[in-house]
Design brief:
With about 325 residues, the chain is an alpha+beta fold. About 20% of the residues lie in helices and about 30% in strands.
């Protein structure tokens, strides 16, 4: 073999090694290729997120939703995908207080969403929970201050909506999880506590199994920025499918708590800029015509924080027609 030929072959091998280092370390390249992709539904921990000047995922999500600002800290949107329409109300706890309306405490029996809104000057109202056959008692633990609607903590209910803390360092409203928070200690620091089923965990994992009936769903959630979301599906939907839609919509959803389903599920928005009421359905309801009046014994409502300091400074909402 000539010197020129050897030199040429050597040069080719050097170039191949420089351009394709995997040729000299095949095992290392194979290990790197075998690394599993990060789960789509699991957000990276904060310390693992790369520094970037690009907009965050939450900011990008926010730009993809046509939020209608009703007043400072209160926004409304309807998001549609094939076969599914979600009504979402986003509430900033810095500007709104959350209260429990309960017939067991207030007297006068169950009320419509509008009646609850008028009684407590609420800008937004949603179901607080399912209730027992007596028509007053929540299925899970529920209290507001000294008033206890149900003292029993249900083992299979994994979420607690809490509001009105006694410590300014605590969130003004949030959802606690039984398997991730020091929930027993934290519950004692909140004026309002309402326990329900958890649909989605803070790790964005669906906790309900596929299958089941189709019905409208009302839910309360928290997003990545700490805002509270009141959610309502306009069409009957399977609970697992409802959760899937929430994770795919640009809402930065975290923990989601189920509050009611079917014809009892509802959501009312009543502000100076928008008045709208959404009532739930079962699949068979679409075969029935006519209006239905739904009376609810317990609701969660939000009203401007100005009401906390001075009732005179809060906007007085007139009864709806």
């Amino acid at each position: 073999m000539s010197t020129v030929s050897v030199t040429f072959r050597t040069l080719v091998l050097v170039l191949l090694i420089l351009c394709c280092p995997a040729l000299c370390c095949p095992a290392q390249a194979g290990e790197a290729a075998a690394q599993p992709a990060a789960p789509v539904e699991q957000p990276l921990p904060a310390q693992e997120k790369p520094l970037s000047t690009q907009p965050s995922a939450a900011q990008e999500d926010d730009e993809r939703v046509a939020w209608l600002e009703l007043e400072k800290g209160l926004e409304y949107a309807e998001l549609a995908t094939p076969g599914f329409t979600l009504v979402a109300v986003r509430i900033d706890p810095h500007y709104f207080d959350f209260v429990l309306g309960s017939a067991g405490r207030d007297g006068g029996g169950a009320r419509t969403l509008r009646q609850w809104s008028e009684r407590h000057n609420l800008s937004v109202v949603i179901n607080a929970s399912m209730y027992l056959p007596d028509g007053l008692t929540s299925t899970g633990y529920m209290r507001s201050g000294d008033y206890i609607n149900n003292k029993r903590i249900v083992q299979r209910f994994g979420a607690f909506f809490v509001a009105q803390p006694d410590d300014p360092d605590l969130p003004r409203a949030t959802i606690l999880e039984r398997d991730t928070d020091i929930w027993r200690e934290l519950l004692s620091h909140y004026e309002v506590v309402i326990q329900n089923y958890r649909i989605i965990s803070s790790a964005r994992r669906i906790l309900w199994s596929p299958g089941g009936p189709l019905y409208s769903i009302s839910a309360v959630a928290i997003d990545g920025a700490g805002s509270i979301l009141f959610l309502h599906s306009k069409e009957p939907v399977e609970a697992y499918s409802f959760a899937q839609h929430l994770l795919h919509l640009p809402l930065d959803i975290r923990t989601v708590m189920y509050v009611e389903g079917g014809g009892q599920a509802g959501l009312l928005v009543r502000s100076q800029r928008l008045e709208r009421e959404h009532q739930g359905h079962n699949a068979v309801d679409f075969l029935i015509s006519g209006n239905r009046t739904v009376l609810l014994p317990n609701v969660i409502g939000a009203r401007p924080a100005a009401y906390r300091n001075s009732k005179a400074s809060a906007p007085v909402l007139q009864p709806l027609p």
